[in-house]
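I wish you would study the pair of lines that follows with an eye to the fold:

===
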Amino acid sequence: MPLRNLWALEPDECTVAEELGKEIQNCQVYFPTHDTGVDLIVVRGKKHVAIQVKGSRYYPGRRKGILGKESSHSWHQIKAKKLAESNSDFYIFVTWKTKDNEYGTKEFEPKFVIVPVGVLRERCRNKNKGRANIYHFYFTFEDDNVVSDTREKVPVDYSEFLKGWLKINEPLAEA
């Protein structure tokens, strides 16, 4: 059984695990020992949620979008086959944006877009996956409450999923 390097966990996965511990009360977070398409498992009592994490830095003003204007964005990719066969309940897209701190220098700030896998599959139905069969997501953050995927001709609003920790908490709730 091949094991991934447990001594060098992915930074995005560690950041999400730490944030889950803060945002979801009375839960345990586990890292699978080999890659099955699930990066984290969140457990509360007898209920669990499987999470896939995708990370990206924020590219400031590097790409002229389909609408012809320059925009800043993250860039996340998901293979169409992996999304179709995913055992995850949620995809968490982590985007590392820079912001000015109190000392006048830049620091990194993670932004979390938390999407149920069923919703993501539905939104990808009309998404262009290209010849390589890969979905590309270019998340643009307008402010602290607005995020959209600007990869498409008409930007797709993902604002309801920004900091959507409660969406993960719902299936873990006691019956």
